Amino acid sequence: MVAERFHFPEKMVTRIVDLRSDTVTKPTEAMRAAMASAEVDDDVLGNDPMAFRLEEEMAKITGKEAALFVPSGTMGNLISVLVHCEIRGSEVILGSNCHIHIYENGGIATIGGVHPRPVKNNDDGTMDIDSIEAAIRDPRGEIVYPTTRLICLENSHANSGGRCLSAEYTDRVGEVAKKHGLKLHIDGARIFNASVALGVPVDRLVRAADSVSVCLSKGLGAPVGSVVVGSKSFIAKARRLRKTLGGGMRQIGILCAAALVALRDNVGNLATDHKNAKLFADGLNQIKGLRVDGPVETNIIFIEIEEGSGTNVGKICKSLEDRGILLMSESISRLRVVLHHQISASDVQYALSCFQHAVKKVQTENGN
Ligand SMILES: Cc1ncc(COP(=O)(O)O)c(C=O)c1O
Predict the structure, then answer these.
(1) Candidate of 81, 212, 218 to mutate for ligand 1, largest count of ligand atoms within 8 Å of Cβ
(2) Which of 108, 174, 204, 265 is the most buried (most CB within 10 A)?
(3) Which of 103, 105, 299, 300 to mutate for ligand 1's pocket (most ligand atoms within 8 Å of CB)?
(4) What is the pLDDT of residues 347-359, one digit of tens each?
(5) Taking every annotated instance into account, which residue ranges of this chain make up the domain Aromatic amino acid beta-eliminating lyase/threonine aldolase (predicted)?
């Protein structure tokens, strides 16, 4: 995935529809007001009242004993993996296409000395239970093998187009983990999207997990931050590791205040994002030369440029950019669109008309 800087040098672009990610949202007026009036103190010293409130709320929502605010989802995952894999040479079983494995700089290995054991992700973001179990190292081979200590899941699964893992599937992975004395971590960057799409409360979706990392700054729309949740002893260790990694941030109450507004105001908006994503996908599938990959369950859409369509990603993106439509290219034939609460149904219609125009323009230029 390539993040580009956008410039609009030639034309005055009057309307911007930013579909690069659900991380691009700007704080709402209510968030800014809450940030301005937030009561704060030093969180590293353990005194920030807004951090307490947010962490208490997140522990309640996820059904875990305790929670900890961290600067990013990447740090939340790293801390979680490192707490579960304290001994160097531990191994973690994770999806071949998951965020921790692909997009987090290999931090679990370079910083934590944790060995990744990828298992193939299916199109729906799951890994076959049998394949997970087969990947667990036989302790009798410890003279040569790393020691399996953790399994990681991702829900919703971003690289699988935001597909959701069911509570039953997660429970089954949890049973495998328990049977072999392993821990289960969920990268729940978008667990609220999964919860809303499945109609299943967050605490039920993550019941089998020992830890979960939840992003506040994606679908929920808060400006900064994630929260890790787990047992009290897990969070005590996570707190120390957060400091080690430079993630102790003093008056974080300003950020936590915005996150509390996001939890209050934006969870309900996720259903609209999902509805808009489905509308968008239906419209894209009507455009000859484009094909949406898989069913759209939440807020992420992957678009394939069909072979022989006379178009290409670079030219389509340029034409869209000229009209203020921003998105990410995944490869030479694949684009990614992400919906969020600052994209309206009217933005979707406008973006679709721009897609139509872009595809036609490129096809004409290429003599098709
Ligand atoms: C599934 C998933 N996990 C973790 C992260 C990391 O979050 P952050 O960008 O806050 O480090 C992302 C970011 O896009 C993500 O999509």
Answers:
(1) 218
(2) 108
(3) 103
(4) 999 999 999 999 9
(5) 18-305
* Ligand 1 atom nearest to 98, measured from its CA: 1
Provide the sign of the torsion angle of the four alpha carbons 194, 199, 202, 206, taken in this order. Answer: negative
Distance (Å, whole) CA 329 – CA 157: 18
Give Cα 294 distance to the centre of its chain. 18
- Pocket lined around ligand 1, Cβ cut-off 6 Å: 72-74, 77, 99, 154, 158, 187, 189, 215, 226
Asked if 321 contacts 293 with a C-beta cutoff of 8 angstroms, the reply is: no
- pTM value is 0.96
Task: Point out which residues pair with 188 in neighbouring strands.
Answer: 214
| Max Cα–Cα distance, the chain, nearest Å | 67
**CA gap 334, 312 in Å, rounded:** 9
Task: Work out which ligand 1 atom sits closest to the CA atom of 157.
Answer: 1
Write out the two tokens for 143.
Answer: 């003279």
